[in-house]
Amino acid sequence: TLAKEIKKRLDNKEQVILFLNRRGFSTFVSCRKCGHVMKCPECEIPYVYHKTFETLECHYCFRKEKNVHICPSCGSKYIKHFGTGTEKVEQEIKRIFPKAKVARMDADTTSHKGSQDIILNDFKNGNTDILIGTQMISKGLDFSNVTLVGVINADNSLNVPDFRSAESTFQLLSQVSGRAGRSDLAGEVVIQTYSPDHYAVETAAAQDYQAFYEEEIAYRKLMGYPPVEQLVAILIAGEDEKHLEMACDYFFLRVGKCSWNFKSCKWKSFYYRCSVWCSHRNLLWNCCSFFTYIER
Fold it and tell me: Does residue 196 have a cis bond before it (omega within 30 degrees)?
């Protein structure tokens, strides 16, 4: 459907914006024989494959390594790139529409001074037919000739392990949808998702803020999440992991039992453990008392 709509716009000399909130070519690299996943040794986060530079990059600490063709774990050649980023979308669009003038705007293509202005001016002046980008194209852009916005894999933000994921998805979809039909020309938005019945997607497609709010606030009340209840996130960091564990144990002893996720990794010169979530009012008061005691 999206491909047909793009072709229709190109035939009418109109412009298209394609949104995917995931830069790079593939989201992770894995061996199909042993299941090994290429991860950053500092963060334990899967590398993202960037085809333009033939590198594997960690989007947390920005560590880079050369792309691999042999599995470092079992020596197999059956190592493959999985997932989709803006680079892959750009490649596919150029393959399907070889005559179209395509541009990509993400952190990789706008790293040089003035590069973002060049991309936007080319699109504004009609030198680009299709603009592909991440969150940076979702708001603040006003192009009268854009009549189609395509949202690719809207589930990226919906399935993030965060109680605000539905809110973020609704916000992104609402913002990027507003890029189409900003003149006398009628605009259309195509949202690709595996969860078309999710209230965040349905209400964003209908531009119904009130309906989204009523669904979301009921969920927040049920689970005791902000803004109904208060929530504190604490990051405890240190250069020595053993000392860090002792500090965390002391913190829990003083504050009380919290909902927490143990994660010990190394970032630059720091080991960090994240995160500690405190939601009960007594625990929040204990946290405040603890940090007041530390200041003294």
Answer: no
Hey, CA dihedral for 7, 11, 12, 15, is it positive or negative? Answer: positive
Query: Phi/psi zone of residue 61: left (φ > 0), alpha (ψ -120 to 50 degrees), beta?
Result: alpha
At residue 201, the pLDDT reads 93
Q: How far apart are CA 23 and CA 63, in angstroms?
A: 15
Predicted TM-score (pTM) of this structure: 0.78
* 8 A C-beta contact, residue 74 and residue 38: no
d(CA 130, CA 102): 5
Q: Residues of the chain whose pLDDT is less than 50?
A: 260-262, 267-269, 274, 292-296
Tokens for 231, please give them. Answer: 């929530």
Tell me: cis bond preceding 227? Omega within 30 of 0 counts. yes
- Asked if residue 84 lies in contact with residue 26, where contact means CB atoms within 8 angstroms, the answer is yes
Which residues are CB-contacts of 56 (< 8 A; sequence separation ≥ 6)?
A: 29, 38, 47, 48, 49, 50, 64, 65, 66, 67, 68
DSSP 69: S
SS3 call for 21? coil
3-state SS, residue 164: coil
Q: What are phi and psi for residue 18, nearest 5 degrees?
A: -115, 125
